[in-house]
Write a structure and sequence with these properties.
The protein is mainly α. The chain contains eight helices and no strands. The protein is flat.
Length: about 170
């Protein structure tokens, strides 16, 4: 699929580094699922303040036995949720830029993941910032949006040079 450039590049890069055995792909999947579970735990703990709830939520995520091809979903949304909470907890330009990098990576893993995460993050930042005034809310959302777009400039230029965005 053309909308999964980073997914393919991640697999190809790992195969290039460690050989073309299927175990390399399984390692990518296992590490991604593990990182997703770890970020789910951290997010649940931060939200609930309870170790037991965090463990329960993480176990539920793993008990449903996610499909191996779904590793980007577990990773992207768990990391995204943790970064959103961190960004609104103590807003800063740096945190917004890190969040935008996660949105860009999600978009490159699979375009719809980036779209969903980007829209939710923008709404989250906007709503969480409105206590500081609408100007701050719009400003932070603009920083998030512009930084996300800047992460995607190389990909956009590549696509434009190789067939164009419309054909893509």
């Amino acid at each position: 699929y053309p909308g999964w450039p980073l997914t393919y590049m991640l697999s190809a890069g790992m195969w290039q580094l460690f050989g073309d055995a299927m175990s390399v792909e399984w390692t990518v999947v296992a590490l991604s699922l593990a990182a997703g579970a770890a970020f789910t735990f951290l997010t649940a703990y931060k939200l609930a303040g309870s170790l037991w709830i965090a463990v329960l939520v993480t176990l539920l995520e793993l008990i449903v036995y996610p499909r191996t091809y779904s590793y980007p979903k577990m990773l992207v949304y768990a990391v995204g949720a943790w970064l959103m909470i961190s960004s609104v907890e103590r807003p800063s330009r740096r945190r917004l830029v890190v969040m935008s990098a996660a949105i860009g990576a999600a978009f490159l893993l699979r375009h719809d993941h980036g779209l969903y995460l980007g829209v939710v993050a923008a709404v989250c930042v906007m709503l969480a910032s409105r206590g500081d005034g609408w100007r701050a809310a719009f400003g932070r959302t603009a920083v998030l949006t512009a930084a996300t777009a800047s992460w995607l400039v190389p990909w956009t230029l590549f696509v434009m040079a190789n067939g164009g965005l419309v054909a893509y």
